Structures are given as C-alpha cells and as structure tokens.
Amino acid sequence: MQHEIISDAILVSRYIKGDETALETLINRHKQKIYSFIYSKVYDKDIAEDIFQDTFIKVIRTLKKGNYNEEGKFLPWVMRISHNLVIDHFRKSNRMPKFDNAGEFNIFSVLNDTSLNAEGSIIKDQVEKDVRRLVDELPADQKEVLLMRIYDDLSFKEISDKTGVSINTALGRMRYALINLRKIIDKHNIVLTN
C-alpha cells in the first residue's frame, strides 16, 4: 500500500530543518507544471532549462535564509518566481517573446497566467482600469494596434487595412506593445496572483 502523500508545507518545513530529500520530492512533484509554464513563454528548451534551474536556485536560497512565508502556497510561490525570471530573461536579452496571434488575446495573459480566484475577480475591474492607464503610456502606433486588437477585437488583416500598414508591421507593433506593457507592468509592480 502506498504511503499517504505528504503536503508541500510539511516538505518545505522538513527541508528548512535540513532534510535535503524533502526538496527533491517537491521538485519532482511540481517539475512538469513549472517547466511547461516556462517553456510556454520562451519556446526554447535550453532557455527553459536555465530558467527552471534558476527558479530552484532562488527557491533554495529563500528557504535557506528562512524568508519563505508559510502562509503562501508553495506552487503559486514558485510559479511567481519563475514568471519573474522569464520577464528578466526578456528584459536582458531584449528579444521579442513569441506572440501567437492566432489564439485569443486576453489582457490577463500579459499580467499573469494564473487563473483569477474569487478575490481576483473583484479586483479584475480595477485592474482593467489600471491597464487602460498603462496602455496610455505606450507609443501611439503601438497603443492603436493594441486597442484595436483587444478592445475592438479586430484581426491583424483588419488592423492592417484600417491603419494602412502591412500585416507584418501591425504584428510587430503588437509585439512591441506587449513587451513594453510587460515593462510598464513590471515598473508599477502590478501582480495578479491566485
């Protein structure tokens, strides 16, 4: 008979008390979810591996220093660390994130990928207002494409026809708008967590 599953919180406290195998169990338990999340942002196995390693280096340092807040849930906390490292990666490399213009674009995918919980839904309206303010900080050409795409739900072909630029230019502006929006969000320290 299998022994019962030990909770993340217990494993964390065991690791803090010096049980190295507890961390291994935690990493194995959440590895797939965290790695998939990172890969879905960077689309590159090597970079995803690096960010995954860095995430756990940061987790270990924080736990060793005793700075982990027991109140928090372990997985969302680790996901936030990896999310911040992904943002750092894009900032440092100044590379455009891959942007899938076929899929539905939702402003919350820029802010965070965790689904909103009940409290989150309450602040959703406020955040959308804040986001509108942030969008106003974008250069005019990027702002125009972003608003047409998100708020008017136009396709890139329609945006191209309306603005008189090629579809590629419209896509490029959208990509830059997203990158800049991430930077602005980061600057204002806006975080939506579940």
What do these coordinates show?
The chain folds into two domains: 8-93, Rna Polymerase Sigma Factor, Chain: A; 107-187, Orthogonal Bundle (Arc Repressor Mutant, subunit A). 70% of the residues lie in helices and 0% in strands. The chain has 194 residues and is an all-alpha fold. Helix 2 runs antiparallel to helix 3 (45-65), helix 2 crosses helix 4 (74-93) and helix 3 crosses helix 4.
Number of strands: 0
CATH class of the largest domain: Mainly Alpha
CATH homologous superfamily heading of the largest domain? RNA polymerase sigma factor, region 2, helix turn helix motif
Poorly predicted spans: 98-119
Q: Compute the gyration radius: what is it? A: 20 Å
- Globular, elongated, flat, extended or rod-shaped: what is the shape? elongated
Summarize model confidence as the mean pLDDT: 77
Provide the helix percentage. over 70%
- What is the helix tally? 9
- CATH hierarchy: architecture of the largest domain: Orthogonal Bundle
